[in-house]
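User: I'm curious what two different proteins look like when written out as structure tokens. Can you demonstrate?

Assistant: Sure. I'll show them one after the other, since each token string lines up with its own sequence. Here's the first protein:
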Amino acid sequence: MKRMILSTIVALATFAAASAQKFAMVDMDYILKNVPAYERANEQLNQVSKRWEGEIDAILKDVESAYKKYQSEAVFLSDAQKTKTEEEIMKKEKEASDLKRKYFGSEGELFKKRQSLMAPIQDEIYTAVKDICDQHGYQLVLDRASGGSIIYASPKIDISDEVLQRLGYAH
């Protein structure tokens, strides 16, 4: 009997604690689309990416034309000349591959540039969300944009517009 009463008290205490928690939701895609600095940063990243892709493409075109030239002249070249030409072509291919890794690798220049441009924006948004949570007593904030497991969320708990207002982008 004591065990049943104790279990009931624990269950009620757990329910009371859970019901006292406040939750909120943000839509990071929505917020980011309404932050001009984010759009500018994305545009910068696109321009840098296109420039670097152009560099790599130019090297690969050189490789392709050198290879075609080599194929057409191979019958006239000595073994030493063939080897030298093949090595030059492979060297250019490696140069393109190294450049691609340098620019677009997992720790490459594009990654670093994205971090340097996006981190301040993300920090500013995080600070605004944290301030709102402290002000309203939210214990948990979910991101609707990245939360594939959120089936339904009431618009009443969406604080995205409040975050934008806190950032100075009245919406």
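Here's a second, unrelated protein for contrast:
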Amino acid sequence: MKPYLSPAEFKILAHRGSTETGAVENTLEAFQAAIDSGITYLETDVQATSDGVAVLFHDETLRRISGLNQRVNELSFLQLSVLKHQGKALEIPKLVDALMRFPGAKFNLDLKTADAIAPTVEVIRELQAIDRVLVSSFDNRRRMTALHQLPGVATSPDAFLVLKIWLATGFGLRNRLSRLLLAVDVLQIPKNFGPIRFDSRKFIDAIHRRSVSVHFWTINDVSEAERLRAMGADGIVTDASKLIMSAFGNK
């Protein structure tokens, strides 16, 4: 088990931080709210500004959050820093600032764009943070490009690889399953993708036999989180970190 996933206990990952107290997602305020709830794992998204700064932001454009119909990589960090959300400063954080602000936290980093790879790798190397980050992407090319530059970093697979893993499990292709999971540390998956169900003990057990963890997203109901944990899940990604943590904190 890589340091990112240690210790081997049920993990609660705050999805884009915690917005339960009114914080804007993927901001230092949202991450602080999650930390204050007792969370040590923070899920977030990385993009790059036009001047090559790795920043934490999810959407394809800034429209939903700031009303500006432009991409992050079309603006410099200085231009991003003056944007507002509902009349208040938006404060999109730099990756380096988040890692430095919360040294006890571990970050789940989803590379949203190809131009985010280089500045993200640079920050992780500069801060020697390989053991406290997991690097993933829905685009396998982005993920693999980053992994080649960060040997030893934890990772979870893209959607297409997850589908191949599920098929290998369903058809009992044990050797193929083992090969598919060789460079994977944790599956971070939904409960289902259309008719395909991942939330079964058989599937989870098959993954565990290859020493790979299983996290489910996005789980905001306590009873559902408890069901998945009883089934063998190693963690969940949630928007309700304060609620889930209060229910799980003493278990």
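A detail about the second structure: Residues 66 and 87 are 9 Å apart (CA to CA).
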